[in-house]
Design a protein that fits this description.
Strand content: 5-15%
Helix content: 40-55%
Number of helices: 19
CATH class of the largest domain: Alpha Beta
Shape: elongated
Number of domains: 3
Radius of gyration: 36 Å
Length: about 525
């Protein structure tokens, strides 16, 4: 039958366990363990150490009631004591009781420090003499994790009796402290395991993003820059206190979740063929076939020069037109400008105008596939290649939705998978509208577009200035392609400029008239 005293002790341990489980800060957690141990043992003083990666015990918190000492932990005073190594010259460090307890992985109980062979008597007496203190009884307990590895050591001194006199730590008190130490070690271990797993996952997400950036020399840095813009805009939106985003607030957990999504937003590109990602020009495949076209034009030039039916004046005109047509095709191949219907017609006219003979076969200077590619309206990708590159977002969503994300990361697929959606539902892959998307996903859409506009590593376009980029995005906000409320914060809170100072070239950073930029989407 449980006595009231036993029930009180059990309730006390439950309260301690809950308090320790709630504590997030490691320094405060160690201090709380020490204070709880002092409370249940009536110890006048105590110290708690944490194990370093170098195999040393590091002072975390020191508390002594009689001396009025509180160092480390939540205090403003850091312990001025050196780390204590478990080994000295490869041998157990017998000069410190905490090192002995840690090395043996068992508690040590000392009734009188001055009589114990485990204690460095000179050091103990010198300490007492300096502080006018008498260290007598001592209880030292190593904190062991689930693998029986030492994570720290708890040391208590001078158990105080009800009469105010120092007494040995009784067997009952020892059991309580050892039980508390086991509970504390479990909490610390769980906290460390969670921390280590989060660090590992974070490192893996950054590693994957880096691998994708390294996969293509023409989008290198994209997967690093998008998270930077995303987090700057998210913070700005969270700081807004009025307007449509006044209620948008992000906790530390929310920030972490969005950061993970931002780093993984293009993870599906791991499955995108390099020849599509690296397509720097319209004719780029394993190599840029513009060189083959130039060779064919040389053949056409030879044919004109050696055609005896052509007079010299007409020959000069034909050669000059040939030169101009080749120059036009070379420029069209870059894909930096819109290819109008008239320009596309010129490509087809060139294909039908110039015929050459190669190995006895009469053929055009342009193959049907080359004509098709040179007539691409925007950029360098044809329809099939655009379908392949667009599929990266489907792959991203499939990859992320297949992962067993914990509860605090369950929105990662939605955030990462929405950066190509548009507010009017004309985006991809799911054609979502604004009200179907989270604020975080809409933030990422703006980040992705701004990075693409200002990127200096795209071979088919010149990096745009801040004012050029924001004017384009203003039209996109007006046309309901991006969220105009988020865009307003992006502009008015100078998010774009914070990013620019870190990542853009000096010549891209020009003056921006906020009123002029926002006018198309909000009116005068």
């Amino acid at each position: 039958m449980e006595t009231p005293q036993h029930l009180e002790q059990l309730e006390h341990f439950v309260e301690i366990g809950l308090a320790l489980a709630r504590q997030k800060d490691q320094a405060a957690l160690l201090e709380q363990i020490l204070q709880s141990a002092q409370q249940i043992s009536a110890a006048d003083g105590g110290t708690i150490y944490k194990m370093t990666d170098q195999g040393c015990l590091q002072f975390a918190t020191l508390i002594n009631k009689s001396l009025g000492l509180h160092q480390g932990g939540t205090s403003s005073v850091q312990p001025a004591f050196p780390d204590i190594p478990l080994l000295l010259d490869g041998q157990p460090n017998h000069g410190a009781v905490v090192a002995i307890a840690a090395f043996r992985k068992e508690p040590l109980v000392i009734d009188d420090v001055y009589q114990s062979p485990l204690v460095n008597q000179q050091r103990a007496r010198d300490f007492d003499e300096k502080t006018s203190y008498r260290t007598q009884s001592m209880l030292t307990v190593p904190l062991l994790d689930h693998q029986q590895e030492v994570t720290g050591v708890l040391q208590l001194v001078n158990c105080m009796g009800s009469d105010g006199q120092v007494q040995p730590f009784s067997a009952q008190i020892q059991r309580r402290v050892i039980a508390l130490s086991s509970l504390a070690a479990m909490v610390m271990t769980n906290r460390q395991l969670v921390h280590d797993l989060e660090e590992l996952f974070g490192a893996l997400t950054r590693l994957l993003a880096t691998a994708i950036d390294e996969k293509s020399p023409y989008t290198g840095g994209h997967c690093k820059r998008v998270p930077a813009i995303t987090m700057l805009l998210a913070k700005a939106c969270s700081d807004v206190t009025d307007g449509p985003l006044a209620d948008f607030v992000m906790s530390d957990a929310d920030v972490h979740e969005l950061s993970v999504a931002a780093w993984l937003h293009d993870c599906g590109k791991i499955a995108t063929p390099e020849y599509v990602m690296d397509k720097a020009t319209k004719l780029h495949g394993l190599h840029d076939s513009i060189a083959l076209i130039e060779a064919r034009f040389e053949i056409a030039k030879r044919d004109i020069m050696y055609d005896t039916t052509i007079d010299s004046h007409s020959r000069d005109e034909l050669l000059e037109q040939l030169r101009l047509d080749l120059k036009f095709l070379q420029h069209a191949n870059i894909g930096g400008e819109y290819m109008s219907w008239e320009l596309q017609k010129r490509v087809r006219d060139i294909a039908s105008t110039y015929q050459i003979e190669v190995a006895g076969v009469r053929q055009s200077v342009l193959s049907p596939q080359e004509v098709s590619n040179l007539c691409i309206e925007r950029g360098t990708l044809n329809q099939e290649e655009r379908r392949i590159i667009n599929r990266h977002i489907d792959v991203t969503i499939d990859m992320l939705e297949s992962l067993p994300f914990p509860k605090h990361l369950r929105n990662v697929p939605e955030y990462a998978g929405g950066h190509h959606e548009k507010m009017d539902g004309t985006g991809y892959p799911r054609g979502l509208k604004r009200e179907q998307m989270s604020v975080q996903a809409r933030i990422m859409a703006i980040a992705d577009i701004f990075e693409a506009l200002t990127a200096a590593d795209r071979p088919y376009k010149k990096a745009k200035t801040l004012s050029e980029s924001l004017r384009i995005m203003s039209v996109m906000a007006r046309d309901h392609h991006i969220d105009k409320d988020l865009f307003q914060v992006f502009v008015e809170q100078n998010v774009y400029r914070q990013f620019a100072y870190q990542f853009l070239m000096a010549e891209q950073i020009d003056d921006v008239d906020h009123a002029d930029v926002l006018k198309p989407c909000f009116g005068p």
